User: Which sequence fits this backbone?
């Protein structure tokens, strides 16, 4: 009996330690947590690890992409290490609100709907939602999707645009809905295998993926009329200092030419927004 009590006490101590360690890694959503990030020298960023070329997992298990490089460079300015946390993209705002991640940074479009929940940095890159279809399907404009099956990533800005602007695609596609996928990779596989006829997707992803796969000449990539978007970094409303620090680092990195170097690596050109180029640090 005495041995059993000792073992039970040890187990209780271990569980208490583990729970304490886990809770210490969760940020308080109601606070400005900048001092915590500085003290721990770590910040957790949530991302979709299939979103090339912004942030994705390579075959060796390491993470790469434009956003990966840019975020690492931003927090290097403050001596803070980034912990990259793959998340279900459809749950990104919930993860942020719960404090399990501190930023959403992965080709994250700053929409009006998201601004109600999230504090955004200045936009750092422009993007556009496009439709991708096989050239053999002869779909080259929005009206060609009449009665056809459309795909989109769940929780993506493309899906939000589809629902918010029904006159563009929703009213004409089959069943007036889009097949939703957890990742663009899954959606592209279905497109390649003719299980969907068109895929609503970020232009930056479509161009990079199809080029890397060597199949760009087999597909049509075209605008269907949705407004262009701004990529920005999403934080909790209370984390105002964090947002200011990221903005300041954007400006500094651009002034020093480091932002342009990262953009050149992934896109072959300077893709910075006017806001980044004009940002002046106090």
Assistant:
């Amino acid at each position: 009996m005495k041995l059993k009590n000792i073992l039970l006490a040890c187990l209780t101590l271990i569980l208490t330690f583990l729970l304490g360690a886990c809770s210490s890694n969760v940020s308080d959503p109601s606070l400005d947590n900048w001092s915590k990030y500085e003290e721990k020298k770590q910040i957790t960023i949530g991302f979709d690890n299939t979103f090339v070329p912004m942030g994705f997992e390579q075959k060796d298990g390491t993470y790469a992409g434009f956003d990966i490089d840019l975020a690492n460079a931003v927090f290097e300015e403050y001596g803070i290490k980034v912990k990259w946390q793959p998340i279900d993209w459809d749950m990104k705002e919930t993860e942020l609100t719960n404090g399990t991640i501190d930023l959403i940074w992965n080709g994250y479009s700053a929409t009006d709907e998201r601004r109600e929940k999230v504090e955004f940095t200045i936009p750092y890159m422009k993007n556009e939602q496009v439709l991708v279809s096989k050239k053999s399907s002869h779909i080259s404009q929005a009206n060609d999707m009449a009665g056809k099956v459309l795909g989109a990533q769940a929780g993506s800005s493309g899906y939000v645009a589809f629902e918010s602007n029904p006159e563009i695609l929703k009213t004409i596609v089959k069943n007036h809905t889009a097949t939703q996928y957890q990742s663009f990779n899954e959606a592209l596989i279905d497109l390649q295998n003719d299980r969907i006829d068109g895929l609503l997707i970020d232009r930056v992803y479509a161009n990079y993926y199809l080029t890397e796969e060597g199949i760009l000449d087999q597909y049509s990539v075209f605008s269907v009329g949705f407004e262009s978007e701004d990529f920005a970094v999403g934080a909790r409303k209370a984390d105002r200092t964090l947002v200011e620090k990221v903005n300041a680092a954007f400006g500094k990195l651009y002034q020093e030419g480091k932002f342009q170097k990262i953009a050149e690596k992934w896109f072959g050109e300077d893709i910075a927004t006017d806001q980044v180029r004009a940002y002046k640090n106090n």
